[in-house]
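User: Please predict the structure of the protein below. I'd like the answer in structure-token form so I can feed it into my own downstream comparison script.

Assistant: Understood. Taking the following sequence of 260 residues as input:
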Amino acid sequence: MQMETGVKCEIKNHVAVLTLANPSELNAITIEMREEFLKLLDELEQSDEVKAVVLKGSEGNFCSGSSVKGMGKRTVLETFDHMDVFSSVIMKIHHMKKIVISMVEGYAVGAGFSLALAADIVYAAEDAKFGLAFNKLGLIPDCGLNYFLPQLVGPYKAKEWILSGSMIKAQEAKENGVVNEIFPTEQLLAEVMEKAERFAAGPYYTNMMTKDLINQSSQRTLKETLEAERFAQTILQQTEDHKEGVNAFRNKEKPVFTGK
């Protein structure tokens, strides 16, 4: 039976798993899915239960970007609005207080590649492929790919991949810093969930501030970074999680963080 199109959400052990379900289009995101996706991200942002989020696709593929059904037919205003919602999804993921992991198997192409890179960490299956076919359609990369990719691989490699419409396999992606780790396809979900649960069990505010400090680092001077670190450390030293960490270290025990 074919999975109903949409964005599915499951929560277990403080980890939310968001599954893009449009397998007939390699999980391309429709207008309805974009709005549903953004709504779920907003809800997870506010959830006290959820500490980490995993993004994945259904039936062996991650995401092929936006659905092509309306491509070439939209007016200027329709295109403007169409991109605005997807851009909001990218911004929400990148600036989300929770740790976000992209779990990539099969194809992550077009804006699906951008979506994967918006996360904090990318884990991939051995069969994962990252595609840049924009110029073959007479278009530029969008949804933040021109921001994320050069920071990871450098401007020269980014231009080469984009201008040649490359399809990058998992190993090449890892060698260029796009992927954190590669797992056998049949082990991918279990491995990613184990890592996500480990992040979720960590000190919540420490994880949140670490994410923000690193995300902002390329736009800050050293002096600004040092000041931001001083501010964050002063706050974190007042948390219950810091006290728990210190006590556990002294007693040679494993800390149990509560996110307070």
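That's the full token string. The first helix runs from residue 31 to 46.
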